[in-house]
Amino acid sequence: MGAIGVVRNGLFVSKMSVLTVGCQNKLHEENKALWAQNQELQAKYAEIANQPKSDPQQVSQLQGQIAERDAKIADLQSQLRQPTAGQANDPQIAGIETSFNKQTGDLTVNVPGDVLFDAGRATLKDTSKGTLNKIIGAIKKDYAGKHVFVDGHTDSDPITRTKGMWQDNLDLSAARARAVAQYLSSQGLDPKQVATRAYGDTVPKKTKEASRRVEIVVATR
């Protein structure tokens, strides 16, 4: 495992299931490519159609190609708007958010603390393993061999119920990050590529509930 440290940077978070991040990114890229092709076809069509002696067959062919691209773009946009199959009925992935930082290439999966742990504890709930298994499966499929960082976060409330177990929130966040990292490694991720980082309460979110979380950061580059 990597060394534990305190880091004070955060990422913009947008809601998207981790199970479709790789697929969604591919769909977005394909969508962009189709838009570019469509613009080229539109420009070519306008050029030919405005010629005094345009070839009706060539114009018709271009119109068909443009219509075909329009249909593909509409289909891709429909796919991009659809949630993961079964997501709405699957409590194991409720509340999970992901974000992608285009500048660094980091994919961040935000897992709520109450999904993973009981209050003040750093032992994974049995019910949390289904969620983690989904994330592990997605990493193995789309980001095999990439470095993974497990970041522990807490809220700013002092520890009371389990005060004797932890020095402070930073200590608790470190233990939680280790617990998740150890589980990732036990399920097939290379331990040499999984590191932990502890943030404590230094990177809060809008609410205390949201601040209690573990973020799994995949360095996709």
Supply the number of structural domains: 2
Number of helices: 6
Number of E strands: 5
The oligomeric status of these chains comes to single chain
CATH class of the largest domain: Alpha Beta
CATH architecture identity of the largest domain: 2-Layer Sandwich
Portion of residues within helices: 40-55%
What structural category do the secondary elements indicate? Answer: alpha+beta
Shape: elongated
* CATH fold-level label of the largest domain: 60s Ribosomal Protein L30, Chain: A
Lateral arrangement of strands in the main beta sheet: 1-2-5-3-4
Spatial separation of the terminal alpha carbons: 20 Å
Portion of residues in beta strands equals 5-15%
Biggest pleated sheet: 5 strands, mixed
CATH fourth-tier homologous superfamily of the largest domain: OmpA-like domain
Secondary-structure element order, N to C: HHEEHHEHEHE
The radius of gyration is 23 Å
Low-confidence stretches: 1-21, 80-94
Mean pLDDT: 77
What would your notes on this structure say?
With 221 residues, this protein is α+β, with helices and mostly antiparallel strands. It folds into two domains: 23-81; 92-219, OmpA-like domain (60s Ribosomal Protein L30, Chain: A, 2-Layer Sandwich). It is 43% helix and 15% strand. The protein is built from six helices and five strands; from the N terminus they run ααββααβαβαβ. It has helices at residues 21-49, 56-81, 113-116, 128-142, 169-186, 208-211, and strands at 97-101, 106-112, 147-153, 194-200, 213-219. The protein has a five-stranded mixed sheet with strand order 1-2-5-3-4. α1 (21-49) runs antiparallel to α2 (56-81). The radius of gyration is 23 Å and the shape is elongated. It starts with 20 loop residues before the first helix and ends with a strand. The model is unreliable at 1-21 and 80-94 (pLDDT under 50).
